[in-house]
Amino acid sequence: MGHGHGHGSAADAASASGRYVTRLAWSFGILLVFFVLEAVVGFMTSSLALLSDAGHMLTDVLGVGMALAAITAARSSVGDKRTFGLYRMEVLAALANAVLLFGVAGYILYEAIGRFREPPEVAGLPIMLTAAVGLLANLVVFALLRSGSKESLNVRGAYLEVLADTIGSVGVLIGGFVTWAFGWYLADPIIGVAVGLFVLPRTWRLARQALRILVQQAPEGIDVTELRAELAALPSVAEVHDVHVWTLTSGMEVASAHLTIRTGADHGGVLTAAQRLLSERYEIEHATLQVEPAECARRCQELTW
């Protein structure tokens, strides 16, 4: 019986998380300052578009804050009570970000209904100036988080929020200009609704990715049936069972399987071949593989799950 473990992915993920902490900390500070600015001016001018943008800025602040806290927690050492560490905190933070974005979008759409019937007068110039400053802040944070969004689901959640808010700031600028130049007050709730609707599809994709990990679905792009067949086709392997493939956190795919071998087979050779297959063909570096003779495999068949 043999067990194979590769720690490359875990080490890479831990190293990457260290790189993100400083960028997330700077992003958090910048967004917090400009959220306060947008919220104050939005209430003073009664601008739904600016309040919508401030709402998204708040989710940016909370999202980046949760991302920062989750990555910091995930870097804590593995112990007897946390055998997988706290990597799932990143996924929970991403899901919480998605819930926040759904909530903000719902509030803006609800608030806009009344404003379409009786659009209040709003001051276009202060809205334009505030949106311009908010746009600048978003662009800075956008640049800080862009590289990390490709590797971490958690950072991607914060990045998507900032992306949506950047688009929102552009919309608020346009709405402020239309209101200021033409006195058309319906522009404000229209822009507010557009920002709310823009973020929904991206939020849904983020939530779906987080839920896939939390329910331990096989990673997208990995065909478990094909993986099982390729393991079974290895020399000296008679049968494969108890195959599980899941994602611990972004970029950390994990697998386990039992390989029943033929009489006289080389345990070490089978284990090495299986590890190489999972690493090279499926990029799974952390795999726990049990190599067992046929008589031991019967014990697995007696289990109820």
From TrEMBL:
Compartmental location: Membrane
Gene3D superfamilies: Cation efflux protein transmembrane domain
UniProt keywords, alphabetically: Ion transport, Membrane, Transmembrane, Transmembrane helix, Transport
Residue span(s) of domain Cation efflux protein cytoplasmic: 219-293
Transmembrane residue ranges: 24-51, 57-74, 86-110, 122-145, 157-178, 184-204
Membrane topology: Multi-pass membrane protein
InterPro entries: Cation_efflux, Cation_efflux_CTD, Cation_efflux_CTD_sf, Cation_efflux_TM, Cation_efflux_TMD_sf, CDF/SLC30A
One Pfam family from the record: Cation_efflux
Principal location listed in the UniProt entry: membrane
Domain Cation efflux protein transmembrane: 27-215
Family from the record: Belongs to the cation diffusion facilitator (CDF) transporter (TC 2.A.4) family. SLC30A subfamily.
Protein name per its UniProtKB record: Cation diffusion facilitator family transporter
Taxonomic lineage from the root: Bacteria, Bacillati, Actinomycetota, Actinomycetes, Pseudonocardiales
